[in-house]
Amino acid sequence: MKKWKGLLIGAAMLAVSIVPVFANVAVESVSDQVSDSKPSTTDPVALKGDVDGDGEIKLKDAQLALKFSLNLLAPTDKQKAAADVDGNGKVELKDAQKILKVALNLATF
Ligand SMILES: [Ca+2]
Ligand SMILES: [Ca+2]
User: Fold this and answer.
1) 6: Cα separation from own chain's centroid
2) Are 99 and 61 in contact, with CB atoms under 8 Å apart?
3) pLDDT value of residue 87
4) If you measure from the C-alpha of residue 49 to the centroid of ligand 1, how many angstroms do you get, rounded to a whole number?
5) d(CA 96, CA 86)
6) Average pLDDT in the 63-69 region?
7) Which residues sit with Cβ closer than 5 angstroms to ligand 1, an ion?
8) Which residue, 68, 71, 72, 52, is CA-closest to 60?
9) What percent of the chain has pLDDT over 90?
10) Ligand lying closest to the C-alpha of residue 83
């Protein structure tokens, strides 16, 4: 019985010494993912015209800008910065039109 107890303690100590290693690895990989995803989600500089923030200027961005200009949707600060392509501080129809033209490759910013 004494032998089993010693084995049990040995196994417990082994487990205790291994667990923190796994915990560290888990925490590190999680924080890696967080820092990796941070630039795209918290980047204060918005891509002009990319209202939904997917990295591309498409019809969807123009639609969002249009909804902002018509007060059908309230933009976040970043969305507003992206949608206000002429930089006059307001998201208006002309901003949505410009984004639409860029989305259709009829214009560039
Ligand atoms: Ca977009
Ligand atoms: Ca504007």
Assistant:
1) 51
2) yes
3) 96
4) 7
5) 10
6) 98
7) 50, 52, 54, 56, 61
8) 52
9) 57
10) 2
